[in-house]
Design a protein that fits this description.
Blueprint: E1 2-5, H1 11-19, E2 23-26, H2 37-46, E3 50-53, H3 57-64, E4 70-73, H4 80-93, E5 102-107, E6 110-115
Parallel strand pairs: 1-2, 1-3, 3-4, 4-5
Antiparallel strand pairs: 5-6
């Protein structure tokens, strides 16, 4: 899967994703280490990537309107390996298209997909 990794994601998580064969770009790699969350989300959308983050602010941004999908990692540091297992399970069972308009909360041993309402075709003004 095509992923854009926020700056707050552990380096070990990036290694796990790369070893699993995912197309990983870190925000820092594209000059966005200090960019606002909204800019990171927009860049992911333009490049058809899923944002992977630990930052709760992304959840609020996704709820505010159409955006790239977001995977939100929620775990205590002692559960990093279990969270990696669950993250890989999510990525194996979903595509970027499946996750359009969604936020996925990944926790050790489980995940929740929260689908947000997408605007229907032809309803946009202008």
């Amino acid at each position: 899967m095509r992923l854009l990794i926020d700056q707050d994601v552990y380096a070990s998580t990036v290694v796990v994703l790369l070893e699993a064969g995912h197309d990983v770009v870190r925000a820092a790699d594209i000059g966005m280490a200090r960019a606002p969350d909204s800019a990171v989300l927009a860049a992911a959308g333009l490049d058809k990537r899923v944002v992977v983050t630990r930052d709760l602010d992304f959840g609020r941004l996704v709820q505010a309107g159409p955006s790239a999908p977001v995977i939100l990692l929620r775990f205590p540091p002692a559960a990093l390996a279990a969270m990696h297992d669950e993250l890989l399970r999510v990525l194996a069972h979903h595509t970027v298209e499946d996750l359009a308009g969604a936020i996925v909360i990944v926790e050790p041993g489980r995940h929740r997909v929260r689908r947000l309402a997408l605007p229907e075709a032809g309803t946009a003004g202008g």
